[in-house]
Specification:
The chain is mainly α and 124 residues long. The chain is 61% helix and 0% strand. It is globular and about 50 Å long.
Length: 124
């Protein structure tokens, strides 16, 4: 009887290790999918930035009294050019509601586009 019990434990251990290996493989698959989705978000955000933001934030010859800030490294600094904290929440609010001469984009960008744009801004 002890041999059977030992065999049973080995079988359970083998199955347990197989399940663990399957879970680990599944995790790396999920990580790859997550990485792919993040890359897609950054790509979409870059296109949205080019379409909606770069004409003001990346051009040097605008004839405006107050120049829009450059957004390179915007999340690498503790504060935004306005003095507000450099957080997703604050940048999201500025994009949606506008600020100063910047128009609001609440009616222009949907929630997914806004998240894509934020993801891209984190890479600049």
């Amino acid at each position: 009887m002890p041999a059977r019990s030992h065999g049973h434990r080995c079988c359970v251990l083998t199955v347990g290790l197989g399940v663990l290996a399957g879970l680990l493989c599944g995790c790396s698959g999920n990580e790859a999918a997550t990485g792919k989705r993040e890359a897609e978000m950054v790509s979409m955000g870059a296109a949205l930035y080019e379409q909606n933001c770069s004409a003001c934030h990346d051009v040097n010859n605008l004839q405006l009294v107050k120049k829009p800030p450059k957004l390179i490294g915007v999340f690498q600094k503790p504060k935004l050019p306005s003095g507000a904290p450099a957080t997703d929440e604050q940048v999201r609010k500025t994009i949606l509601d506008g600020r100063g001469i910047m128009p609001p984009f609440r009616q222009t960008l949907d929630a997914e586009q806004l998240e894509d744009l934020l993801k891209y801004l984190h890479t600049r």
